[in-house]
Amino acid sequence: MSTKEPVVLGIESSCDETGVGIVRGTQLLANAVSSSMDEHVRFGGVIPEIAARAHLEAFVPTLQQALDTAKLTLDDIDAIAVTSGPGLAGALMVGVSAAKALALATGKPLYGINHLVAHVGVGVLEGTVLPPTFGALLVSGGHTEILKVTSLTKDVQLLGSTIDDAAGEAYDKVARLLGLGYPGGPAIDKAAKDGDRKAFRFPRGLSLPKFVGSAENPGKHRNNFSFSGLKTAVARCVEHFEAAGEPIPVADIAASFQEAVVDVITSKAVRAMVENNLTTVLLGGGVAANTRLRELLAARCASAGIALVVPPFSLCTDNGGMVAALGAQLVADGAKPSGLEFATDSSQPVTQIVLTH
Amino acid sequence: MPNYLSIDTSAHASVALIDADTGAVIAAHTSPKGNDQTETLAGYVRDLMADHGQQGPELAGVIVGVGPGPFTGLRVGLVAARTFGFVWQVPVHGVMSLHALAERVLELDEIPEEFIVASDARRKEVYWATYNRQGALTDGPHVAAAATLPALPVYGVGAGIYEEALREAGAAPQPESFAWIAESAYLAKHGLKDLAAGKDLSNTAPQYLRESDAQVPAFMKQAQAKEATA
Q1: Which of A89, A97, A105 sits opposite B79 (nearest CB)?
Q2: Dist CA A287 CA A285 (whole Å)
Q3: Which of A245, A301, A338, A348 shows the smallest number of beta carbons within 10 Å?
């Protein structure tokens, strides 16, 4: 195997996307994704059992599609990487079992890797050059994290995360309150375009001095997020209009809610970058598609002299290409394969980049 | 002569290598635990094949249990079997997992005219099916509370768990079978009979028998009703 530019097949099944991607070194050769999102719409959120059922049916066809796109056979693959966590346990197990069977049947080494670090690892694709040390902001339906990446393959640190709902989850819940459908992110983003983001002042979670502290004496939640209070505030606001028998100002509420989320995420992320001397930040996760998040983050990064890297959207949402990208970095760095006996870990910490044998 | 690889994860992770001509069990292994399919299955297959110098592409095929069984474990075996079939380019045959229990009944000295096999479906229910003396399926598979089963001899781990409820319902749980779970060697035995009889086993769709638990939440129903009337 070419250890400098290994051909790695990556498998992702941590939520509602079945992904199989193939990379050669830092070049993306294929990124096949099958989503069960349509099946979750009527529930207003991802139903784990439905997602897991869909993974089983989608796996082999998605694998075939990725190989076809890359114009490769399994013989051409040097190694296999799979998301071992964090994510939905039942969903993860389908991908991991498939990956183990694939590794065994082909005789290729298998790496069980961290989903969140893979969201960052995708940043090496498509000719993007990342500095040795950088920061990452991951915002999705299941995650809201600020990371410090000293080495993609050896040293990733969690600077902050949500203590309750993920940002994308808050979007879904508020979209329901406003009758805007699922998934909430794009729906609210769209409704907010016609709204006044200063119409309502919704709370910025964990922004009080007692939580934040100072740079020298940081509070417990300086870099952490909370969105459950915000969601409740929006609910009270909607109830207020309903009780008064007045029409609900959907666009203004959507815009003001979005501003509260995006304001607290970007201000905390940029502050964390500055205080950790990180001059580049990578934005990942499905909520990276949000126009206001990108706009405000770009502006605040520019003011702080921080370079912002945003991968193409198809690589920000869950996909196998990101798993393959991180896998290729690990193989090139001489990481040991994870074997065939590892378990999934639905709360795998970012410090565990690859599972050890 | 080629062999079959048999896999069932409807109860515990269970693997076997079966002689395609004679049906003889070359080797078999079943996990003592019911919650380690993801961790153990691939390693069991690796060891089974390595110990017997079996090459994947030289298999006659893969026989896999399609359930019913607890969903998460069941999927682990199904996705692995389908992947083996894809890589090795060998056929994958789906066999209903309760058949594995029925095959064990057929080995008894006295086989009832009609009998039930029952496995653990959790949530105070069993997966069950009825068979005739020749081992042919006569009803099922179903999922139901043990107390609702017909008044017949009942075999399998489900009979042990719900012994009392079954007796009260007039059924006859058979104590010698209370430890029986679906094992891949017995599953293959049934599969080989079906294949010899010319049955098409190409369907490997899981037998969930239950819908996902998801309920459409009230607020979504309201929203959907609004949309429908709008």
Answers
A1: A97
A2: 6
A3: A245
Contact B80 A43 (CB under 8 A): no
d(C-alpha B126, C-alpha B171), whole Å: 14
Instruction: Report pLDDT for B228.
Output: 57
Phi and psi (nearest 5°) for A151? -150, 125
Are residues B217 and A47, on separate chains, in Cβ contact within 8 Å? Answer: no
Residue stretches of the annotated binding site of A for substrate? 138-142, 172, 185, 189, 290
Q: If pLDDT is split at 50, 70 and 90, which confidence band does A350 have?
A: very high
Q: By C-alpha distance, which of A279, A12, A223 is closest to A122? A: A12
Q: The tokens 């298999």 sit on which residue?
A: B59
Among B7, B10, B38, the strongest candidate for a mutation testing the A interface, having the largest count of A CBs within 10 A, is: B38
Residue whose C-alpha is closest to residue B201's, from B6, B2, B3, B1:
B6
Question: Do the interacting molecules here have an ipTM over 0.85?
Answer: yes
Shortest distance, CA A333 to any CA of chain B (angstroms): 26
Q: pTM value?
A: 0.95
Show the tokens assigned to B90.
Answer: 């060998």
| Interchain CB distance below 8 Å, A176 and B226 | no
The whole-angstrom separation of Cα A262 and Cα A346 is 27
Please write down the HEC assignment for all residues of chain A. Answer: CCCCCCEEEEEECCCCEEEEEEEECCEEEEEEEEECHHHHHHHCCCCHHHHHHHHHHHHHHHHHHHHHHHCCCHHHCCEEEEEEECCCHHHHHHHHHHHHHHHHHHCCCEEEEEHHHHHHHHHHCCCCCCCCCEEEEEECCCCEEEEEEEECCCEEEEEEEECCCCHHHHHHHHHHHCCCCCCHHHHHHHHHCCCCCCCCCCCCCCCCHHHHECCCCECCCCCCECCHHHHHHHHHHHHHHHHCCCCCCHHHHHHHHHHHHHHHHHHHHHHHHHHCCCCEEEEECHHHHCHHHHHHHHHHHHHHCCEEECCCHHHHCCCHHHHHHHHHHHHHCCCCCCCCCCCCCCCCCCCCCECCC
Q: How far apart are CA B73 and CA B79, in angstroms?
A: 10
Among candidate residues A215, A212, A120, the one with its CA nearest the CA of residue A158: A120
Domains and CATH numbers, chain A: 7-126+315-332 (3.30.420.40), 132-310 (3.30.420.40)
10 Å CB burial of residue A121 (0-12, 13-18, 19+) is buried
Q: How far is A56 from chain B (nearest CA, A)?
A: 6
Show the low-confidence residues of chain B (pLDDT under 70): 1, 217-230
Q: Which amino acid is at B136?
A: A
* Closest Cα in chain A to B72: A90
CB contact under 8 Å between B223 and A181, yes or no, is yes
Report CB contact under 8 Å: B75, A94.
yes
- H/E element holding B27? strand B25-30
What's the gap in Å between the CA of B64 and the closest CA on chain A?
A: 14
Among residues 103-142 of chain A, which lie with CB inside 8 Å of chain B?
A: 103-106
pLDDT of residue A65: 98
pLDDT digits (tens, 9 = 90+) for A117-141: 999 999 999 878 889 999 999 998 8
| Residues B146, B63 contacting (CB under 8 angstroms) | no
